[in-house]
Amino acid sequence: MGHVISNDENSAVYTHGHAASVLASHGARTAATSAAYLLPHLSPGMRLLDVGCGPGSVTLDLAQAVDGITGAGQVVGLENVEAPLEAARALAAARGDERTRWEVGDVYALPFDDDSFDVVHAHQVLQHLADPVAALAEMARVARPGGLVAARDADYEAMTWHPRSAGMADWLDTYRRLARANGAESDAGRRLLEWAHAAGLTEVSASASTWCYADEAGREYWAGTWSRRVTDSDFADGCRRHGLADDEQLARMAQAWREWPGPDSWFVVVHGEILARP
Ligand SMILES: C[S@@+](CC[C@H](N)C(=O)[O-])C[C@H]1O[C@@H](n2cnc3c(N)ncnc32)[C@H](O)[C@@H]1O
Predict the structure, then answer these.
(1) Residue nearest to atom 24 of ligand 1 (CA)
(2) Boundaries of domain holding 134
(3) Hey, which residues does 149 pair with through a beta bridge?
C-alpha cells in the first residue's frame, strides 16, 4: 500500500484495500451507474471535488459533465492513498483528460480553503469511515455557500439476490462483521440522511437507487469481481486477522460466488443517496 494519510482519532481500516481485483471493479463504475442523482445538478464551469475518488472512472465522467476537460470547469480527485491515483492518472491519460487534478489528502482534513468548490462528492466512501458525520462536515466546509454536498453509499444488509446459497450468505454476514471490526458501518445507505442532519447540512434530500445484475455480462462482472476479492483483497487478510473466516471458509465463499451466475440469477445492491447544501 502507498503513503497513507489518516487521522488517528477517526481512522478506520479500509475494508476492501487496493488490490488489482478491487481497483478493476471500482474502475468499471460510471457516473451514469453511480452518480445519476447528481448529474442533473452539474453544469459547465463548476468546480467539483471527488473525495475518495479511487481509480477515478466516476471522477472523469463528472469532469466531462462540468466541462473540466476543455477547461471551463475544474475537477479534483482526492485519495488518502497514492495507489488508486496511479490507476486514475492512467485512465485520465487514456481519455485525454490532462486537467483533472489528483491529490493525496484526508477527508477529515481536506487540503483546501473554505468555500473552494461548487460541488463536493463522495461515492462509496462514508461506509468505510469511523466518523462519517465529521467527514460530511469537512466536505461542507470546502463547499461554497449555496453549493452542493453529494454522497452515495451501498447498504450491505439490504443487498438481495437469487438463487440463495450458504456460501454467499456467509460472505455477506462476514463482510458486515469485518466492516464493523474495521471501525466502519457497512449498512450506510439507510443512514446517510441521519448523518447529513447530524453534520449540520441543510436542504437535505435523500433518494435511493440500485445496481441490478441480471444479464449475462452483469452477472459475470459481479460474480467475477467478488469471487476474486474474497480471496485476493484486504477482505481475506482482514477476515484472517480478526478470526472471522479461515482459508477454507473463504474458499467456500469464492466458490459460491463462482457458482451463482446462471440464466435465472439476479442480484440487487441498494444504495442511499443524499444531496444537501453546506
Ligand atoms: C469503495 S472506494 C470508492 C472509490 C470511488 N469513489 C468509486 O466509487 O469508484 C472508497 C475509497 O475511499 C478512500 N478513502 C478511505 N478513507 C479515506 C479518507 N480518510 N480520506 C480520503 N479517502 C479515503 C479509499 O482509499 C478508497 O479508494
Answers:
(1) 52
(2) 20-277
(3) 120, 276
